[in-house]
C-alpha cells in the first residue's frame, strides 16, 4: 500500500477540491435569499421530475459490451428512447434523508455497483472519477483522471499576501456529494504496472447521486453553477483512505464527539482547532497520541486514569 499512500499525498496536494472552493475570479451578484424549507420542496420536485423523464444506460450495465468503461450516461425519454425505464423506477435507486437545521433533504442515490472494498466514512478521503451536471444536462465539471477528495476536510494554517497566519478550513466537499460517497465501496485491490500507473480491479463502486441545492451551493452560485441549483453527479470510486488529519492516532471520524457528522463543531479545548485538526485535544501539553493506546491490531484504547468518565486525551487535568 506504500505506493497508494504516496499517490494519496500527491493527490491531496495537487487537487483543487472543486466541490468545496469558489473561484476568486467569480463576480459577486446579489441573490434573493429564499426560504430553505420552501426551496427544499421545490428542488425535490425538480429532481423527481428529472428522474421521471430521464434514463441511464442500464442495458449496457446489464450486458456490458466489449471494452465497456462503466461510465453512466443520462438521456431524455423521448422519440427512439420513449420505451426506456426512467431512473425513478430503477430498483437500484435509494433515497437518503439528511436533516440540516431541522430541514429534511432527500438525496437520491443510484447504486449501480456498490463496490467490493471498504466504504469511506464521512471524514475520510476517496480516489475517484466524477462528472457533475445540472438538471438541464450542462456539464460543469468532469475528470479525465481520478483525483483524491478529502470529504470533510480539516482546519490548518493559511497565510495571506503579507505573510500573516490564520486558521482556515482546508479541503472538504459539498454535503450531498459526501452523503452519496459513504454508500459505496472501493475496489478490492489494484496492481501497479511497470510504468507506475495503477490498474484497479473491476469491482469498484459505480453510481450517481441527485441532490438539492441545500446540500450543494444553495444561494452561492459558483462558476457555471447558478444559485439554487440541484446537482447530479456520476462517479467511480476506486480507492478509500481513512483520514487522521492531525496524525494523533485517532481517525478523524472518531473525533466527531457529538455524532452529527460534522467535525468542525468538536473543539474540546476551544482553541479554534477542531479535535480532528488538533494534535493536543485538551491543550494539557501532552500530545493526544501519548494519552491513548494503539494496539497491534490497530484498535484504540482510551484511558481514563482518574475515572471521571472523560478520556485522558480530552481531560486537561490528566497529563504526564
TrEMBL record:
Q: Which InterPro entries match?
A: PPIase_dom_sf (IPR046357), PPIase_FKBP_dom (IPR001179)
Question: Which Gene3D superfamilies does the record associate with it?
Answer: 3.10.50.40
Looking at its record, which EC class is this enzyme? isomerase
In what residue span(s) does the PPIase FKBP-type domain sit?
123-241
Alphabetical UniProt keywords: Isomerase, Rotamase
Write the Enzyme Commission number(s) for this entry. 5.2.1.8
Name the chemical reaction catalysed here.
Answer: [protein]-peptidylproline (omega=180) = [protein]-peptidylproline (omega=0)
Phylogenetic lineage: Bacteria, Pseudomonadati, Bacteroidota, Flavobacteriia, Flavobacteriales
Q: Does the keyword Isomerase apply?
A: yes
Originating organism: Gillisia lutea
Please give the superkingdom of this protein's source.
Bacteria
UniProt protein name: peptidylprolyl isomerase
Compositionally skewed regions (Acidic residues) per UniProt = 255-284
Is Isomerase set as a keyword in this record? yes
Task: Tell me the segments the record calls region Disordered.
Answer: 249-320
